Amino acid sequence: TGVTVPVEIPVATPTPRPTPRFLGMFAMLGVYVRVIPVFLGILWLPFLKRVTPGTYQFFLALTVGLLVFLGVDALVKSLEAVEKTPGIYGGVGLAILGLLGTFLILSAIGQRASSAAAVRGDEGSQRLMLAYSIAFGIGVHNLGEGLPIGGAYAAGEMTLGALLVLGFMIHNVTEGVAIVAPVARGEVAWRHLAGLGLLAGAPTIFGTWTGAFSFSAIWAVLFLAVGAGAVLQVVFTITRSMIRSSATPLFSLGNVAGFLSGLGVMYATGFLASA
Prior knowledge:
This protein is an all-alpha fold. It is 79% helix and 0% strand. The radius of gyration is 20 Å and the shape is elongated.
């Protein structure tokens, strides 16, 4: 009849096997995408130590904006992955369980640790604990983000994988700023800075391994939902601390500008990660 039916047949590529060579290659992808950018962001710490109290509040609000964007983005991607899961697993229920369960568990742990630090009168420990909470939330989020990178290379989509690596490198430098902002008003040991960077960035390595060798939409739903819950719990904690410890109204012009700047930075650099 002259009717043509276009059909795209992808090129067959062998599934990578977890040999030392491939483990090392995908581990380096995680290092390039998350570990190095997070540590580059941590280098903002000396600058944050010298800013005025008003500017410091601006950066705390910027941190909230960055984290809100990350949390909502992770939740949206988790719900998108639900469509690829078998119905028997109840993908939406798994996402809700990961989100709310992580939020509540971290809130309970944080409440207990904060109460203990408050009894000791140790404000530095409270700030350091908040920084570690941010790093943990970002780390779980990055674990989920590593899945599509490893999966892209495993499927033979080398161009897509390279663009994801380049885009995420630029996009993720801002995460280091969010991690060190709570501890910028005090002294912090180098071992803690190293621990914060590894906690936030290293999970990407495990994400790329999972995506490359045993990708499953179930893992994507769970990891991204847990990451969203962890990040949004930190947003709640930072916002509450800003209300309690600052004489500046929460919705002051500086705080609103910082929050919107955080959203804007993540939105703008997100184009590079999805180009």
